[in-house]
Amino acid sequence: MRTKLTWLGCTGLLLAACGDEVGNTPDESSSGAGPTTDDPDTGATIGPADSSSSETTDPTTETSAPTGDSSTTGEPAGCGNDVVDDGELCDGADLGGQDCLGQGFEDGTLACAADCLSYDTAACTMAGCGDNTASGKEVCDGTDLGGATCKSEGLGSGTLACAANCGGFDTSDCGASCGDGSVDGSEVCDGNGVDGESCVSQGFSSGQLGCNADCLTFDFSACGTCGNDIIDGTEFCDSENLAGLGCLDFPYDSGQLACAANCTGYDFSGCGTCGNSLIDGNEFCDGLSVGTTCQGLGFDSGSLSCNVDCVSYDVASCGTCGNGFIDGGESCDTDDLGVVTCESIGLEGGELACGANCGFDVTNCNIPGLIFGSDTGYTGYSLTPPVLPCDDISLTGTPTLLTDDSVLEVPIGFTFPMYGADFTNVAVESNGGLHFGSADYMGLGNECLPSIQQPNTTNLYVMWDDLNPNTGEIYYQTLGNPGAQRFVVQWDTTHFGGDQADLIRLQAMLMESTGQIIVCYPDTLSVADAGNNGAEATSGIQRDSGEGFEFSCNTPDLVNGLQLLYIPA
């Protein structure tokens, strides 16, 4: 590294080289040469000029190149022979009579630069150099730069230092130009250039890192720290600080807005929209989603619904057994039997009563059949009336278009209570059953009741067997006036592998006014079929895998003209 020396003129360090202004040295008088000077740009010492010329020749600006190989190196032709030749200021050990003192220093050993055009003053020193105080002829000393900077020296930005010999400045770290957008010198940034750094790399969570005007420090004003409750950087919010916004400022109508974990967005999980059938925000319910039941609110029965505001329940259809009037899902209440009598529910007379659970008590009715089973939900009666009460809907019903081993969930047309739960839809099974609560498929492998085979809850088994509606059809239809409607399902089909021209017919009816279930068997015979009369089928009703009862299981008891009546307990 070449050390730059700052020239201070004849009043500065190099007084001995100022020539006639302060008196010629003996060598100058005898030679007739002018004084030597430092080039303020290169730090090189320029030797005495030829007294025969009125112009001083600067070796670095000669217009005629030296001869020989030096034309490609910029060195005088004889450089390196230890003799000062034409164009040379010095050569090896030949210093042209100069020493450190003549170069403005006070001690040390002067050397010739390798190009023979300047002196190497690196080994020259000033008196007192190294005590961090610029004094005497010192330009600077350690950290004492006399207030000088790279900028004051016309070298842009950077860190100015003092040369080891205190005779000039070390400008090796100067040269950067703050404001040119390029990070150089001692700059850490420049304009938009941040040298690959970011708010995150500087310990913040987000934001845009900037550069201060001095190019030596970063501007953190646009950086943010997520979690400090202050919205900074590129944050939308921070912890509890939501910038004054809430769920209602977005397309929601209730709930509690929160800030996302990274502070760059909002958490809408606590917000709600009434009408989307989801219970969210501050909602108690939404559409068909009610989140609880009438029983959960302290009633005994009924179907709970949601008010249009989504923050309150409609309990008009909930009932309290024992209050003396029919409400909720009750068939009766105390002495209130509605218009129902023993005769109206298919029995032959007697005194109908209301049970303790607000279902009909038929103990005192004349029942023209046999009780074949009961559980906590229903009592089953087998009858053989002169005319089966089930409607033939083969010409008016809606075809299900079911194929072998398939299921279709269809609307009932009214709310029907099955084992105390209200349903508006029912799944029609190709294999001779009805399932409430889902559209799950009921397999063909029948079991005796109660069965564990899924789906095993709230099922009516009309003729649970391997039936095949690929031949024939299964229909459904809602008949009657509101309040006294009946929902009919009719299987006109074959037993799997049976005669495709000789169909069997099964019917099931759900009664709106009484909650009764009526099953009819108009035709259970097909030509030479092993499954005739339900010989390979199950017939019955089931709450779940632990409770239910059957009329028959793999016995040929489902004969033509049979009626099964299931009366709610």
Class by SSE composition:
mainly beta
Largest sheet, strands/sense/barrel: 8 strands, antiparallel
Shape: rod-shaped
DSSP summary, beta strand count: 38
Helix percentage: under 10%
Strand proportion, as a percent range, falls in: 25-35%
**Rounded Rg:** 54 Å
The number of distinct helices, counting runs of at least 4 residues, comes to 1
TL;DR of this structure?
With 569 residues, the protein is mainly beta. The chain has 1 helix and 38 strands. Among the domains are: 125 residues, no CATH class; 171 residues, no CATH class.
Features:
mainly beta, disordered N terminus, 1 helix, single chain, 27% strand, six-stranded antiparallel β-sheet, eight-stranded antiparallel β-sheet, 569 residues
